[in-house]
Amino acid sequence: MDLHGDFHVYDTTLRDGAQQEGLNLSVADKLTIARQLDGLGVGYIEGGWPGANPKDTEFFRRAAAELDLKHARLTAFGSTRRAGVRAADDPQVAALRDSGASVVTLVAKSHDRHVDLALRTTLEENLAMVRDTVGHLRAEGQEVFLDAEHFFDGYRANRDYALEVLRTAYDAGASVVALCDTNGGMLPDWVSDVVHDVIDTTGVRVGIHAHNDSGCAVANSLAAIDAGATHVQGCINGYGERTGNADLVTVVANLELKLARSVLPPGLLGDATRIAHAVADVTNFPPASRQPYVGSSAFAHKAGLHASAIKVDPDLYQHTQPERVGNDMRLLVSDMAGRASIELKGRELGFDLSSSPSLLASVTARVKELEATGFTFEAADASFELLLEEMVTGARPTYFEVESWRVITETSPLGEAVSEATVKLRASGERHVVTGEGNGPVNALDQALRTAIGQAFPEVVKFELIDYKVRILDQGHGTDAITRVLIETSDGESSWVTVGVGHNVIEASWGALVDGLTYGLRRQGV
Amino acid sequence: MDLHGDFHVYDTTLRDGAQQEGLNLSVADKLTIARQLDGLGVGYIEGGWPGANPKDTEFFRRAAAELDLKHARLTAFGSTRRAGVRAADDPQVAALRDSGASVVTLVAKSHDRHVDLALRTTLEENLAMVRDTVGHLRAEGQEVFLDAEHFFDGYRANRDYALEVLRTAYDAGASVVALCDTNGGMLPDWVSDVVHDVIDTTGVRVGIHAHNDSGCAVANSLAAIDAGATHVQGCINGYGERTGNADLVTVVANLELKLARSVLPPGLLGDATRIAHAVADVTNFPPASRQPYVGSSAFAHKAGLHASAIKVDPDLYQHTQPERVGNDMRLLVSDMAGRASIELKGRELGFDLSSSPSLLASVTARVKELEATGFTFEAADASFELLLEEMVTGARPTYFEVESWRVITETSPLGEAVSEATVKLRASGERHVVTGEGNGPVNALDQALRTAIGQAFPEVVKFELIDYKVRILDQGHGTDAITRVLIETSDGESSWVTVGVGHNVIEASWGALVDGLTYGLRRQGV
Question: Shortest CB distance from B313 goes to which of A117, A223, A404?
Fold first, then answer.
């Protein structure tokens, strides 16, 4: 199967992935992501298009000085030379040559119509562009991969020409020719047939670059690999233009865990979840919770039906062990779950509810009651734990009594508006009146509340609000709508999520903030 | 291929889809979604599990009176009878029988280990449960489908038993036996082999129910159909537990547009985008922008490279015409796009920039300048249009001059906190000082602003803020962070999106609100 020995796992998040709507990466972001991808053990990181994109030129410049990759090789992406100009004289080709990358991936047209209408040149000249540019960069000492753009559409329109482009690149010294489903419209069986034909007819070393427009990017990649491709391109978290590139972690996890193909350095797949989420933090796109393998819901079980079986044997309901990709199994508490889920959740949090059926029944009833008013405990373990403690011990932990709070945001003649909150509370027998400022009402309230409590409990100084989610629950349009807020608080080492509900978003946020600090103090053993 | 004539498109959003983490549907929500699914022309809508889930019992009761489905048949889901009890005496089976649904889908264990450990009964009794329950419901006049739970894992563990479950159901009168990849771990080639074997060996009519744990739910569904399945189960928008069910619209669009299979009533696929987004509004889960076919980014083109080719022929860069699924091609303005994208975008909005290269150059420069400070025009067409107007005519449309604004949220001894905003501005020569209230600071400001402007321009009365998105752009941690706000305003007929940027989230929101109203007034021809 591996005609050529090693298998290439090739990430193009920093180039093709960056074409996703709304994705804007700074050079610093790109360097950070490159290090994260290297931690996963990918073989190649396509860093961008130096020369064409000023940000990317800067990236390669800084990468040469600052990036110390342990596993991956940095590749520079760019197109074949312009028509009618020698590769050696083309400044954009020079930028690739001078990028410092040891590998260059050249994109070339392999669809005759694109050569005609987009490049506006002849089929012969396009082949010369391929031959000349690949040959030039090889002679200058770089390894070259070729991305055959629109390959599958080109193969259908003019099979002979498409294959000729591949041969030309390969004969000129390209080590891999990646067949790109640029428009993303292929289906797996079609990909398989084409890859078989390409390999049988030309003998080139084939790669696959799939997009998800038919919802089959992962399957198309696997089909190509099964047909003999030994190089797969994709993006972590499936980033990319339109519907995205093939999700590289999904492809790799399938290869390693289901197809017994060893494509990453040993042991690194177990960091996949951590790394996928870390990259998502940098891109500022919240990771899709339903994402295969690494999504926060990927191993989260809700239905009461499943939860009772999981008590018996987790493998009965999971297609693989979550630890193999660094993920966790989670049991969700919700109104769909029966007592089995709540009992298991309680146990997970350190409460043994199995010995007291009536307590379990009242906890279950209270959960359903609160959920009917808009609370959710599914994603708010800390709030659920406070609830359990209240019902098991008879008293909810309390560290302070709030008198009042208010927050004002107003325009300033000096510049931007500032938010200012005043909180009045009693803690440890003393009354505190504190004003805090922030870049928004919730931030200002958080500052004021923590400063006020911090006078009695210094532990809160290191707490920090690190995530904030708002959802409007449409019980009816307009003033009826309930707002639910989820807040994630961190103490620098770990983090916890609390929930707040109300008609007013600031009121709901306040509830989650108070719970978050209460829980945090509880954890500290105060 | 169609041994049995018609092909079944079967949606289980209201049952399996509802098991998605965070998804909570009221009975009213379910009725609304059922009507929406019917509008797409699906053949079957699985409404829930009456008898086991009180909300679902209520749904079926109300459906009988209120749902008038034109295309779909409502199905009730439930399990085979309990071990050791006759189907005719089992109250949960009675609930299915009495649900009013003309079709019942029974879930049965087909994996021997599940029969043993989860059901805690014998393999023979499980077959009797299948035979008895299917037979009973058939005798009572309902059509019966069987969901063979964990079928593929069961087939691998004990092929003979798994096939025996299918035969038993079919012989007892089930019209379809749906093979469920309950844990979602299958890959397309494996599914194909199993489906071929099932059909060759038993001759049953096969359905497929795939989950996306391997990222191959759509491909697995297509593989099964290619191997002879004539019934496909999935969820609109790919809802479902863990990684979700197969995205039913993706499957259907692939069948109709790429595989020449007519599976929906003619003409209805063109409503897919509208319906997918409408269902997302009800579930309160924002639709995934990268979703195949119906996602807002599915046909959105960003790279300057592509935009210049699209000017020539859209089919060069799209795998299908967006209109076939009711979607649109969009060109994104961003710092990755060159002048080609901005020129095309300008033309889309009614500005001809091609005649003035220096104007195009300064617009492009201004866009990049603003994007460097945090603005994005990609999703904010209305703000981009105001910018173009400012640069083309030399003046930005202005309808009012703001003096100041402030918003206060404070606790009330009477109940929840209330937000109150005061806006001072001049419009049409008069000064207005208005106070508005709301369920949050931005809502209160919006009320005050529109009331203030409404005194000079009554047109704004019908404007409504319908969507609000906040993103923190991490230029550095803490006080440096820029907030970007996108606001969608509607006048009841159409809607537009504006963007605001600032260090303070309320300041950023204010900017987007002002642009939103300005643009709205401009549209009205004021």
Answer: A117
In a domain, B494, yes or no: yes
B63 plus B114 within the same structural domain: yes
Residues B249, B136 share a domain: yes
CB atoms within 10 A of CB B200: 10
| pLDDT at residue A114, as a whole number | 93
- Please, are residues B327 and B273 in contact by the beta-carbon 8 Å criterion? yes
Q: Residue B452 is inside which H or E element, if any?
A: helix B441-454
Whether pLDDT at A307 is above 80: no
Task: Tell if the CB–CB gap between B292 and A214 is shorter than 8 Å.
Answer: yes
Which has the higher per-residue pLDDT, B472 or B158? Answer: B158
Are residues A290 and B244, on separate chains, in Cβ contact within 8 Å?
yes
> Is pLDDT larger for residue A127 or for residue A523?
A127
Q: Model pTM?
A: 0.80
At B477 the pLDDT is 43
- Between residues B424 and B494, which one has the greater pLDDT? B424
Q: In this structure, are B432 and B518 located in the same domain?
A: yes
Q: Minimal Cα–Cα distance from B111 to chain A, Å? A: 10
Q: Which of A416, A473, A504 sits opposite B504 (nearest CB)?
A: A416
3-state SS, residue B105: strand
- How many other C-beta atoms lie within 10 A of the C-beta of residue B257? 18
Contacts of residue A370, Cβ cutoff 8 Å, sequence gap at least 6 = A377, A387
A26: distance to nearest CA of chain B, Å? 9
> What does the block give as tokens for A169?
């690149």
Domain membership of residue B152 (yes or no) is yes
- The reported pLDDT for the residue numbered B476 is 41
Q: Which of B405, B410, B503 sits opposite A416 (nearest CB)?
A: B503
Residue B180 has phi, psi (to 5 degrees) of: -100, 125
Q: Do A185 and B319 touch (CB under 8 A)?
A: yes
Q: Shortest CB distance from B303 goes to which of A22, A241, A409?
A: A241
Question: Distance, in angstroms, between A96 CA and closest chain B CA?
Answer: 17
Residue-wise pLDDT tens digits, B370-397? 877 778 776 688 898 899 889 888 888 8
CATH number at residue A168: 3.20.20.70
Question: How many angstroms away from the CA of A293 is the closest CA of chain B?
Answer: 7
pLDDT per position as a tens digit, B134-159: 999 999 999 999 999 999 999 999 99
pLDDT single digits (tens) B96-123: 999 999 999 999 999 999 999 888 899 9
CB contact under 8 A, A405 and B418: no
**Same-domain check for residues B279 and B415:** no
Judge: A309–B117 Cβ closer than 8 Å, yes or no.
yes
Can you give the residue range of the structural domain that contains A23? Answer: 8-283
* C-alpha to C-alpha distance for B337 and B345, rounded to whole angstroms: 11
Contact between B506 and A308 using a beta-carbon 8 Å cutoff: no
Domains contained in chain B, number: 3
Interface test with B, best of A504, A510, A513, A514 (most B CBs within 10 A): A504
End-to-end CA distance of chain A: 61
The two three-digit tokens of residue B411, written as one number: 């606790």
> Alpha-carbon distance B376 to A336, whole Å?
40
Residues 6+ apart with CB under 8 A from B414: none
Alpha carbon distance B20, A193 (integer Å): 36
B504·A418 Cβ contact <8 A = yes
Which residue from B minimizes the CA distance to A281? B474
Instruction: Please report whether residue B289 resides in a domain.
Output: no
The average confidence (pLDDT) of chain A is 90
Query: Confidence class of residue B64 from pLDDT cuts 50, 70 and 90?
Result: very high
B449 domain-assigned: yes
Cβ neighbours of A53 in B, within 8 Å: 336
**Interface test with chain B among A14, A56, A319, A345, by most B beta carbons within 10 Å:** A319
Same domain, B143 and B246: yes
Q: In angstroms, what separates the C-alpha of B373 from chain A's closest C-alpha?
A: 12
Residues A115 and A241 in one domain: yes
pLDDT exceeds 60 at position A477:
no
Asked if residues A302 and A329 have their Cβ atoms less than 8 Å apart, the reply is: no
Q: What is the least distance, in Å, from the CA of B283 to any CA of chain A? A: 9
Domain shared by B79 and B212, yes or no = yes
